[in-house]
Structure formats: structure tokens, C-alpha cells
Amino acid sequence: QVQLQESGPGLVNSSQILSLTCTVSGDSITANLYYWSWFRRPPGKGLEWIGYIQSRGLTYYNPSLKSRTSISRDTSANQFTLQLISVTPEDTAVYFCARGGPPGDPYDYWGQGTQVTVSS
Question: Which residues 6+ apart lie within 8 Å of 67 measured at CB?
């Protein structure tokens, strides 16, 4: 069974870098044509897609966050990492990692989510 687990600090200071790691088990992040994505849900708002790193290593980001976002991976550890720079309290959210197919396909496996609070 595929499992995803987010990890990282729960509190980040404004203007600093938010860094989260998703550890995947039960599948290889380099196998098949999957899209390993990050999402977030700010308090009282809907789910927002942040970006993905595809199994072949290609990345694509939400245009509204692109200038501040980087997604990378450690294939030996079967992990992928989100970095968001210059954070503000508006980046406070529950962050999720997920596995999906090509755009348009559903995301079939999700992490449980991790709360990140950005202090002002």
C-alpha cells in the first residue's frame, strides 16, 4: 500500500524558508508516470495546489506561487521536498503531499497533512 508522510517544522518565522519533506513508501517516486504534488489548505479556505515533481523529475508550479516555490527530490530516500521562500502569515496552512496521475487524473494517495504556522 502506498503511504505518504509529511514532515517539517510546525512554526516558521516570517521572511524565512518553509521546508517540508514527503516520505513515500509502497511506491517509487521515479517509477511510472506519477505526479508527486504539494497542496495546502489555509484556515477557512479551500485546497490550493502548490506544484508537483513528476516521476521523470520535471517540475511545475502554481503560477501564483511560482516565484517563491521549489520542489526537489531525494531518490535514494524516496522523498520529495517543498521549499517556499519569503513566507508571510498568509502562508499559514495545513500542507499535504499527494500522488496523482497526469493532469486531469485524480490524486489517489494523500499524506495526513501537517500544520505550518508562520509567525509575524
Answer: none
